[in-house]
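thought: user wants a sequence for this fold. calling inverse folding tool.
action: design(structure=
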């Protein structure tokens, strides 16, 4: 594997947990994991995937509904990673991973993304209304 491919793979690997953490943040107050988040990670300060890491540490103790939801999120992250791999390499190769920077990079280039990657953003946007 070339260094370039290794870097792209690493960036994508770091990009996907951001999606999972974002989805988990939404489920703190609603959804099948709300009770589990409160029970196991209620004292964890949110940010930089801390809640996602906590939930991963308690994976065996999670409710069946939360485990299923987590599995679905992981599958979604993998799908996004695959669908957006070329766009990350094309538009975001100089962007440092972490803190949602890759996600922001892709979002800023949404009109130029490949159709499959853009479709993932549209689906995610339609499911994540946020109250401020």
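)
observation: tool returned 132 residues.
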């Amino acid at each position: 594997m070339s260094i370039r491919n290794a870097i792209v793979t690493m960036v994508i690997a770091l990009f996907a947990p951001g999606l999972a953490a974002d989805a988990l943040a939404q489920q703190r107050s609603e959804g099948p994991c709300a009770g589990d988040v409160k029970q196991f990670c209620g004292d964890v300060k949110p940010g930089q995937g801390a809640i996602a890491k906590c939930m991963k540490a308690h994976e065996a103790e999670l409710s069946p509904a939360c485990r299923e939801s987590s599995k679905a999120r992981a599958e979604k992250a993998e799908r996004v990673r695959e669908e957006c791999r070329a766009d990350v390499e094309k538009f975001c190769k100089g962007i440092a991973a972490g803190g949602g920077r890759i996600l922001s990079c892709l979002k800023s280039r949404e009109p130029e993304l490949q159709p499959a990657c853009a479709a993932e953003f549209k689906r995610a946007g339609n499911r994540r209304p946020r109250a401020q």
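thought: summarizing for user.
answer: Here is the designed sequence. The helical segments are 3-27, 34-41, 50-57, 64-91, 101-108, 115-127.
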